[in-house]
Amino acid sequence: MSPNRDAWTDRLSEYVDGELDPAERAALEVHLQLCEGCAGVVEELRAVLLRAGTLEASAPETDLWPAIAARIAAPRKARVLDLSDGRGRRAPRAAGPGAWQPRRWSFTLPQLAAAAVLLVMLSSVTMWAVLSRRPAAVPPLPGPSAASPVTALVQPAGFESARYDAAIADLERVLREHRSELDPATVRVIEQNLLIIDQATAQARKALAADPANRYLNGHLAAQLMRKLTLLRQATAIVAVHG
Amino acid sequence: MSPRVTSASGTPEVAPVATDFQETALAAAGDTRAFERLYRAHVARIHGLVRRMLGSDEATEVTQDVFVRAWQKIGTFRGEAAFGTWLHRLAVNVVLTRRAQLGTRRDRFIAEEQVLENLPARPASRDFSLDFESAMARLPEGARHIFVLHDVEGYRHEEIAGLLGVTSGTTKAQLHRARMLLRGHLGTGR
């Protein structure tokens, strides 16, 4: 019988490796007594196995140590992220036992787009909540204050933003301290969004200075501050999870 | 996994575990001379693994990568296993990472499969070992990796399946395929 058409052919390596169960093994051994083709393949497989197990180690033709020594002797500097030109440069990567190597995270364009969509959705929900005065839709502010954030958000006049400013300042500090752990592209996106929000916030504050009792302007300012808070929370969450 | 340790002459040798442990401790403290001694003790085996897995073109660079990575990670070596075993596993991971990076080159391996199928069953040369290595290099990529890990390096199917993210049924099938392709290049005839 030809081994190419034999039902046992594909099991012969398992037989050689001793991986068949006792019943299969007994059946195959009966078959091998009758099938010269399979018996020959078994012998060849054993020869392959024997040859593979005695292959020699293979030293490289040239000494690789000088190149390895040069690589592991790289300066052990902490990575510095320079965003001054908007492109981000890193110091040489640290090398060596125990060398601190900050984790570097990058995000694909679809991931950034998804984050942007989420941010827009959150901002829209917040704005809707502010303008429609529906407290349940507004997420709570961080911090120990017992006062309802919704109350603060929907105050019709003289909106007090100090609590938001404090929370934002805390998150900005965290982000500033850990920004080098984020990919420069991610940092750029975050900073561009913060800039847009800050410009809107500044315009709202300027308008409120002229008309402090304006309900719409107070709501608009609250919405901008909430947008910034949400963005900073997301950014610091990335640091917390991946840093 | 207790991968085989084979000397340059092909005879099994006892891994110098105790010496390795001392050298590893020194290297972990930043002693590059100790790390060089570890390199010299293990480079042939690591280079052989890398060359058989990825081919000669990649072997030099990836072998360097393995030792640089070992230097960076040596502080995590706790001595539960022999240093050679730890280094070997690290090398396999580096190789598999490179393999993923080289995924776009797979057309080349498909072409090589045809080359293997067309190789003469009996090598013209009497250097059967070299011909066997050449035939191994022409195996289809997946079958070659599994053959090297299982039959050359001594990994079990379950370990290979875990490393490659496939089932042990797949590794068994690929191993059988590799052996069937190689059996004509032993000099034993078919």
Tell me about this structure.
The complex is a heterodimer of chains A (about 240) and B (about 190). In chain A, α2 packs across α3 (about 35-55) and α8 (about 185-210) packs antiparallel against α9 (about 215-240). In chain A, about 60% of the residues lie in helices and about 0% in strands. With about 240 residues, chain A is mostly helical. Mean pLDDT of chain A is about 70; it is low at about 75-95, about 100-105 and about 135-160. Chain A is built from nine helices and no strands. With about 190 residues, chain B is mainly α. Chain B has nine helices and no strands. Chain B has helices at about 15-30, 30-55, 55-75, 85-100, 105-120, 130-135, 140-150, 155-165, 170-180. In chain B, α2 packs antiparallel against α3 (about 55-75). Chain B is elongated. The interface between A and B is large, with 38 and 50 residues.
Brief descriptors of the model:
heterodimer, A: 243 residues, mainly alpha, 9 helices, B: 190 residues, Rna Polymerase Sigma Factor, Chain: A, Arc Repressor Mutant, subunit A, 2 domains
Q: Give the low-confidence spans of chain B.
A: 5-15, 107-115
Mean pLDDT of chain A: 70
> Could you tell me how far the N terminus lies from the C terminus of chain B, measured between alpha carbons in angstroms?
33 Å
Distance between the termini of chain A: 64 Å
Order of helices and strands of chain A: HHHHHHHHH
Biggest beta sheet attributes of chain A: none
In short:
The complex is a heterodimer of chains A (243) and B (190). Chain A is mainly α and 243 residues long.
Q: In terms of topology, how is this protein built?
A:
The complex is a heterodimer of chains A (243) and B (190).
Chain A: H1 12-16, H2 22-34, H3 36-53, H4 65-72, H5 109-132, H6 149-153, H7 162-178, H8 184-210, H9 215-242
Helix pairs in contact in A: 2-3, 5-9, 7-9, 8-9
Chain B: H1 17-28, H2 32-54, H3 56-73, H4 83-101, H5 106-118, H6 128-137, H7 141-152, H8 157-164, H9 168-182
